[in-house]
């Protein structure tokens, strides 16, 4: 009897919890990215076709078009327009920047400080000058693998679903702990308590701690650098020899303090634009912004003020 009462109370509490969680911005994955979508899930049809698939895995289209059908220009399926780097509903910039256009305030003049604070930064979208490639074509996965193994394989197929789990997994931004093909050891990034897609804490992404650096390093293994890496060479590696601290522990920055995850509208001056790729290959002029959140090396000045 008593245990029945307890389970009734637990059940009532869970119902309340569910109501709270569904009531807006609280954590838990939103449909259609919902693990355990239930016996009569409607979400599958947002992406899959049983007989008329246009891409492998019975998908209605290839990526990124599949994702842009809700997360792209003018799409009604989600407020998060990652193609243009904007939260359409709130008219704010998205944390990840954008793949085709982005709204990052890359000329923000305050020192030392956030990049762009909570404001939209620029009033109209500026063209992205660098972005992660999301069409599944072969790319060089910079710094992947053990010390001394070269700059990284040049045949890594990257798409939206390589980083994100389209079926939901309860992790921060449904990031896959082990992106397929990365060879990493797995990194779970704990979800936010309350989902917040604007750039209020763009530079001080404290809630993620060091886990986001570990996650980027699932693919970019040797970019993860601990204290002392600026003075101690990585043994046996002639490419990534001395490295800026990046592991997010103590005073070390995380990767996303300097880089936007998706794409940036930052522009590069003469010196910054001339930086070659790891291994020495020349980069295309005007395309060297490398997901940095500030123009030129403005990102360095945010902390160092030289
Ligand atoms: C937001 C788009 C999206 C939605 C919604 C979605 N899927 Fe998928 N699904 C994908 C993508 C992309 C892949 C390929 C991913 C990969 O290669 O691992 C995939 C792969 C699969 C696979 C094969 C690989 C695997 O992970 O097992 C199955 C089975 C599957 N989906 C079933 C479903 C079912 C059932 C639903 C509804 C409950 C659903 N999907 C909803 C995008 C989606
Ligand atoms: C290289 C890995 C990677 C790829 C590829 C990628 N994302 Fe993301 N995405 C992230 C990370 C990391 C974040 C969290 C950004 C942050 O908080 O700064 C994110 C955030 C998001 C968000 C939340 C909005 C935001 O800007 O924070 C959405 C929506 C999203 N991604 C969708 C997509 C879609 C759609 C694609 C393909 C067109 C894609 N992502 C490709 C890593 C990736
Ligand atoms: C049928 C519409 C639809 C499609 C297709 C779709 N999404 Fe989403 N996605 C949503 C909605 C709705 C949300 C919740 C946010 C909102 O309300 O706008 C969301 C949220 C997200 C988030 C944020 C999750 C979080 O934890 O904050 C990511 C990341 C994301 N989608 C990635 C993708 C990727 C990758 C694809 C393609 C494989 C994709 N989406 C395709 C509708 C869609
Ligand atoms: C302190 C700022 C800063 C941090 C932290 C940082 N980066 Fe970078 N990153 C840069 C700059 C600046 C460049 C441009 C190339 C250069 O100057 O070496 C760059 C370039 C890159 C490139 C392009 C290839 C190249 O080397 O030019 C990759 C990939 C990359 N970073 C990944 C990462 C990852 C992954 C992390 C976290 C483990 C990280 N970065 C942390 C500043 C940073
Ligand atoms: C699933 C593997 C994967 C993950 C995870 C990943 N990347 Fe990448 N990244 C790549 C590949 C492949 C490229 C090279 C091709 C491209 O996309 O332009 C790349 C390119 C880059 C570049 C160079 C961009 C340019 O100008 O071409 C930077 C900077 C970078 N990544 C930073 C990051 C950061 C920061 C994170 C974590 C938020 C991250 N990456 C997570 C696979 C990954
Ligand atoms: C988020 C803040 C932050 C950013 C952005 C940043 N740094 Fe640093 N930098 C640090 C910290 C923290 C250390 C480590 C100091 C220590 O060892 O305690 C450091 C160390 C260094 C060192 C080694 C010497 C020293 O002071 O210990 C150099 C050189 C350096 N940074 C240059 C740069 C350059 C160049 C950029 C831009 C590409 C940059 N930093 C961006 C925070 C930052």
Major sheet size, sense and barrel closure: 3 strands, antiparallel
The span between the termini is: 71 Å
The secondary structure category is alpha+beta
* Gyration radius, in Å: 21 Å
- Total DSSP E strands: 9
Each distinct ligand:
heme C
- Largest sheet strand order: 1-2-3
Shape by Cα distribution: globular
Strand content: 5-15%
Q: Spell out the helices and strands N to C.
A: HHEEEEEEEEHHHEHH
Give the overall pLDDT as a whole number: 87
**Low-confidence region ranges:** 1-27
Give an account of the 3D structure:
- With 306 residues, the protein is of the alpha+beta class.
- It has a domain of 177 residues.
- The protein has seven helices and nine strands; from the N terminus they run ααββββββββαααβαα.
- The strands form four sheets. The protein has a three-stranded antiparallel sheet. A two-stranded antiparallel ribbon has the order 4-5. Strands 6-9 form a two-stranded antiparallel ribbon.
- A hairpin with a 4-residue loop joins strand 2 and strand 3.
- The structure holds heme C (HEC) (6 copies).
- One heme C binds next to helix 4 and helix 5.
Primary descriptors:
disordered N terminus; two-stranded antiparallel sheet; 8% strand; 3-stranded antiparallel β-sheet; binds heme C
Task: Summarize the entry for a quick read.
It contains seven helices and nine strands; from the N terminus they run ααββββββββαααβαα.
């Amino acid at each position: 009897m008593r245990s029945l009462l307890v389970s009734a109370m637990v059940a009532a509490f869970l119902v309340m919890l569910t109501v709270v969680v569904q009531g807006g911005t609280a954590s838990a994955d939103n449909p259609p990215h919902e693990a355990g979508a239930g016996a009569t899930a409607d979400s599958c049809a947002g992406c899959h076709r049983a007989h008329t698939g246009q891409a492998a895995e019975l998908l209605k289209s290839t990526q990124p078009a599949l994702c842009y059908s809700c997360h792209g220009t003018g799409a009604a399926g989600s407020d998060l327009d990652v193609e243009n780097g904007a939260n359409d509903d709130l008219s704010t910039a998205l944390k990840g920047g954008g793949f085709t256009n982005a709204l990052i305030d890359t000329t923000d003049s305050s020192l030392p400080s956030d990049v762009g604070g909570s404001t939209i930064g620029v009033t109209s979208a500026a063209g992205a000058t660098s972005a992660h490639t999301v069409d599944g074509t072969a790319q060089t996965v910079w710094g992947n693998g053990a010390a001394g193994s070269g700059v990284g394989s040049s045949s890594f197929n990257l798409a939206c679903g390589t980083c994100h789990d389209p079926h939901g997994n309860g992790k921060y931004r449904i990031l896959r702990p082990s992106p397929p093909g990365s060879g990493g050891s797995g990194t779970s990034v704990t979800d936010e308590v309350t989902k917040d897609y604007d750039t209020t804490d763009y530079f001080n992404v404290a809630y993620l701690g060091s886990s986001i650096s570990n996650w980027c390093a699932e693919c970019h293994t040797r970019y993860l650098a601990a204290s002392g890496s600026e003075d101690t060479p990585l043994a046996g590696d002639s490419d990534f020899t001395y490295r800026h601290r990046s592991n997010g522990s103590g005073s070390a920055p995380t990767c996303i303090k300097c880089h936007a995850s998706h794409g940036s509208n930052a522009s590069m001056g003469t010196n910054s634009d001339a930086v070659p790729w790891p291994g020495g290959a020349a980069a295309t002029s005007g395309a060297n912004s490398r997901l940095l959140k500030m123009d030129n090396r403005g990102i360095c000045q945010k902390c160092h003020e030289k």
